[in-house]
């Protein structure tokens, strides 16, 4: 529980990492990419309060003790969800794979959840791996990077035919939550990478699954919002929004939040610190204190304590079936059952 | 693509809004310092994704001009991994506007510490296209299609800003629909909107509708609310992107903070 001014808040941090980007883990010949990637992440950290900045050496590989202190002790996070990121082309044993993350899940089985991944270009072998991972890690979700390179391919779309068996496999295995990275684009070079319409198609075709768009599609918030209004099973992952904007650009942050509250709604927004890019504590603290800076924002939906409780924990708890302690739930929190919503919107 | 220009040079100059008059203006001061005129010209280069001049975004890391008119420009982007296609466009646009400055002899454009900087630099300085920089890695040799997507977004976002200004100034929302280009306020924002329309081939005569959809059609009353909300969303998105880019650049190069507006 996060405590502030004598009140307790139930927190689910839907986007955390424990990575190894230390030079010992750089793939020979790809050092420039491995170094560039982690330096880029480190630059993002500079958007948070100065007292939370780390030296690059710590940032490349922080310890389990750092994690426990920052996330559990200081951050008061009740449940954390690891979003696994492989990047094996640059990092020999992976950046933060499900296996790496799972070591900590085994230590804190009641507090941590690990999400897996799949890549439709891996075909049958990928399906088998997903099956094994689902059993090994008790998967409820996956994190997908459509722009990831794979054996000469420069990315894929969720609407590609090769992705269909993977969505079916997810349904079969009870993997309900599909987190999609549609954030700042690095690879591939082609223009399709700048368009999230493939998520739109996949969400329409797979109404049993939830699609959580990480970083709310930044830098394509408008495409994401237009899509989210049409697809009841599309959610906003707030990582980078709180970390990258709330402290560095508070007025922009207020506008982005206003837009998300209007287009997506407080029942479909999920807090994510993106730890270790940013520590959760200052983000939770600042968010609990947050309101629009002045009346020029009066056209946006209002937020109250309940809105914040939903965004900080209850919405994600609903998607992941996490039990909410007594007295902390809010009637009607979280989006309604997706299939029902789809029916309603179809008949509307 | 709805509009294709007849030559790549024309297309490029239309799409960046580098009008002949802007170049002429830069050249019109022969006594002026050449470096200053080069920087002036660079002010005509826009980040295609953010629709802001690269000079305002503080993307010019250095600009050295020799007495013989050789220009060496170092562009710095917010991260080493900024999208190579946009980097390429800004590099190519910079090269073109600087070459057009009178008194300039050779132009070298370089990217500071960018992960595809060497490839882009080499292709730019040999006049090769985007595919020349990344053989086998992209089919998007013509980046103008990508640029056009963002030009349309910029148009929508900027129209939203103008409308909000008008509404704040007392214009009734319903009046927005019937307004014509001639009735647009004389502001930098409105002038940029007209430039963007020209780039997209959307008519901007005095009696053309002041506010249009991305496809160039004038807005109709039933669309107005949704259109205004949508325009504001696009603007917020562009601003948010710009603010992240500025924050990262500031952090990376230890620049003094800009005040938030």
Could you describe the 3D structure shown?
The complex is a heterodimer of chains A (348) and B (261). Chain A is α/β, with parallel strands linked by helices. Chain A has one domain (11-347): Alpha-Beta Barrel (TIM Barrel), CATH 3.20.20. Chain A has helices at residues 31-45, 56-60, 64-74, 98-107, 123-137, 164-173, 197-205, 221-230, 241-246, 250-263, 280-289, 305-320, 338-347, and strands at residues 2-4, 7-9, 12-16, 79-83, 112-115, 141-144, 177-181, 210-214, 234-237, 269-270. In chain A, helix 5 runs parallel beside helix 6 (164-173) and helix 8 (221-230) runs parallel beside helix 10. Chain A is globular. Mean pLDDT of chain A is 89; it is low at 337-348. Chain B is mainly alpha-helical. Chain B folds into two domains: 8-141, GMP Synthetase, Chain A, domain 3, CATH 3.30.300; 145-250, no CATH class. Chain B has a three-stranded mixed sheet with strand order 3-4-5. A two-stranded antiparallel ribbon of chain B has the order 1-2. In chain B, a hairpin with a 5-residue loop joins strand 3 and strand 4 (71-75). In chain B, helix 2 (20-27) packs antiparallel against helix 3, helix 4 runs parallel beside helix 5 (117-125) and helix 7 packs antiparallel against helix 9. The longest helix of chain B has 30 residues, at 224-253. The model of chain B is unreliable at 1-31 (pLDDT under 50). The chains are: A alpha/beta (348), B mainly alpha (261). Chain A binds chain B through residues 32-33, 36-37, 39-40, 43-44, 46-47, 154, 184-186, 188-191, 194, 218-222, 225-226, 244-245, 248-252, 255-256, 258-259, 262-263, and chain B through 49, 78-81, 83-85, 115, 130, 134, 137-140, 145-146, 149, 153, 229-230, 232-234, 236-237, 239-241, 243-244, 247-248, 250-252, 260.
């Amino acid at each position: 529980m996060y405590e502030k001014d004598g009140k307790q808040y139930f927190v689910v941090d839907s986007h955390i990492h424990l990575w190894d980007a230390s030079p010992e883990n750089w793939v020979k010949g790809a050092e420039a990419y491995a170094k560039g990637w982690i330096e880029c992440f480190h630059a993002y950290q500079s958007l948070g309060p100065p007292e939370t900045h780390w030296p690059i050496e710590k940032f490349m590989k922080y310890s389990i003790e750092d994690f426990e202190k920052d996330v559990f002790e200081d951050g008061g996070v009740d449940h954390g969800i690891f979003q696994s990121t492989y990047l094996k082309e640059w990092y020999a044993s992976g950046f933060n794979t499900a296996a790496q993350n799972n070591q900590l899940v085994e230590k804190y089985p009641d507090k941590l959840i690990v999400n897996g991944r799949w890549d439709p270009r891996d075909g049958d072998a990928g399906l088998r791996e997903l099956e094994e991972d689902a059993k090994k890690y008790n998967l409820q979700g996956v994190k997908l990077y459509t722009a990831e390179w794979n054996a000469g391919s420069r990315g894929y779309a969720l609407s590609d035919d090769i992705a269909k068996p993977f969505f079916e496999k997810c349904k079969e295995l009870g993997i309900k939550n599909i987190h999609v990275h549609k954030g700042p684009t690095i690879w591939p070079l082609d223009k399709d990478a700048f368009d999230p319409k493939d998520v739109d198609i996949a969400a329409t075709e797979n109404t049993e699954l939830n699609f959580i768009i990480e970083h709310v599609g930044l830098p394509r918030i408008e495409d994401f919002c237009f899509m989210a209004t049409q697809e009841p099973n599309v959610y906003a992952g707030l990582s980078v929004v709180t970390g990258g904007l709330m402290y560095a650009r508070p007025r922009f942050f207020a506008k982005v939040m206003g837009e998300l509250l209007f287009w997506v709604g407080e029942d479909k927004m999920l807090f994510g610190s993106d730890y270790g890019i940013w520590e959760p504590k200052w983000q939770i603290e600042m968010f609990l204190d947050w309101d629009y800076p002045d009346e020029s924002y009066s056209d946006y939906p209002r937020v109250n304590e309940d809105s914040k409780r939903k965004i900080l924990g209850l919405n994600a708890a609903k998607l992941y079936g996490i039990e909410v302690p007594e007295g902390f739930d809010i009637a009607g929190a979280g989006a309604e059952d997706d299939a029902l919503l789809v029916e309603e919107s179809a008949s509307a | 693509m709805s509009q294709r220009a007849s030559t790549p040079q024309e297309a490029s100059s239309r799409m960046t809004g580098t009008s002949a008059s802007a170049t002429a203006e830069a050249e019109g001061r022969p006594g002026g310092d050449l470096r200053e005129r080069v920087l002036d010209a660079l002010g005509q280069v826009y980040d295609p994704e953010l629709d802001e001049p690269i000079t305002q975004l503080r993307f010019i890391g250095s600009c050295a001009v020799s007495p013989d008119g050789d220009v060496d420009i170092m562009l710095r982007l917010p991260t080493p991994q900024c999208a190579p296609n946009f980097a390429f466009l800004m590099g190519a646009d910079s090269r073109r506007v600087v070459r057009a400055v009178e008194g300039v002899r050779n132009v070298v454009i370089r990217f500071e510490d960018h992960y595809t900087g060497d490839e882009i630099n080499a292709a730019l300085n040999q006049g090769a296209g985007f595919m020349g920089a990344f053989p086998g890695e992209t089919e998007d040799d013509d980046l103008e299609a990508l640029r056009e997507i963002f030009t349309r977004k910029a148009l929508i976002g900027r129209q939203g800003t103008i409308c909000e200004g008008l509404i704040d100034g007392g214009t009734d929302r319903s009046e927005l629909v019937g307004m014509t280009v001639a009735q647009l306020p004389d502001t930098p924002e409105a002038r940029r909107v007209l430039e963007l329309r020209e780039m997209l081939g959307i008519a901007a005569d005095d009696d053309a509708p002041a506010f249009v959809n991305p496809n160039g059609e004038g807005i109709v009353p039933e669309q107005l609310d949704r259109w205004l909300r949508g325009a504001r969303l696009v603007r917020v998105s562009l601003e948010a992107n710009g603010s992240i880019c500025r924050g990262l650049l500031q952090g990376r190069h230890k620049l003094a903070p800009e005040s938030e507006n």
